[in-house]
Amino acid sequence: MDIKQLLYFITVVNEGNITAAARKLHIAQPALSNHIKNLEDDLDVKLFHRGPRKITLTEAGEILYTKANNILELKNSIRKELEDSKSGFKGTLKIGTISAIDADFLENTFLRFHKKYNNIKYEVYEGITPEIINLLFSRVIEVGIVRTPFDKTGLNTHYLEMEPMIAAYKEDNDLDKINSKISIKDLDGKPLIIYRRFENIIVSAFQKLDVNPYIFCINDDSRTSLLWANTGLGVAIVPMSSKNLVLANNLKFKIIDNESLFSQVSIITLEDSNLSTVATNFIDNIK
Questions:
Q1: Where along the sequence do coiled-coil regions lie (predicted)?
Q2: Of 231, 240, 261, 253, nearest to 178 (Cα)?
Q3: Residue 267 to residues 92, 127, 142, 193, 226: CA-CA distances in angstroms?
Q4: What is the pLDDT of residue 87?
Q5: Is 261 in contact with 272 (CB distance < 8 Å)?
Q6: Do 61 and 190 share a domain, yes or no?
Q7: For residue 110, what are the domain limits?
């Protein structure tokens, strides 16, 4: 198995059949078929279910497709990192970030860094925190921007300022009567819309005060929580910095005054990794 075989395999998957892949790769169809067969023989697995018009991946093929993409990303990363190995003023920063990042963070980190290193280019991968951590361990990216909670094992972590959770809602006469801060007990019986990763933290904070939360909706993005709250379906619980992520003119916000309901954006890298000069400069620029 070599890089060329993996590239051929990925192209076949992306194109959906051998004929289209051979055309894109500018090689003869029989030659490409032989490369795929040799790859299957080398790995001793069947990679495709071959249909009359389109091929689909076997379970082994799906595993290889994910790993092959990571390998090719790593190969490209090595090449790009060599470009910036001397000065760090040229090259590409490969960074993964959660989607729920507000404009102030972008301005205070990326814009400031860009003004100092204006020849740096960026490859940005978006996802939820566990996906960003997986990309980091796969070495597809060098730096991750994630949000607590997460497992710190094997990671260097630089925590940014702590921020409280807020309750976002459209209409609620009870909450309207309270000033800027509310307690967990003020949310008793309210239909709550929460981000899946915060479920244990939120439920635990409520139960410590003998309040059984009414979890109306669980989802995978703070923006989804805010959009649902904006329709009047319930009360979203999100980090404070998330409140400007969506255009939601109907929403009202209250800080939840509870020491357990705080979150932090964190900058992570792999322990014992040799960061490129570009990535090192980026980390130093944040600290």
A1: none
A2: 253
A3: 18, 15, 11, 27, 25
A4: 59
A5: no
A6: no
A7: 88-160+265-286
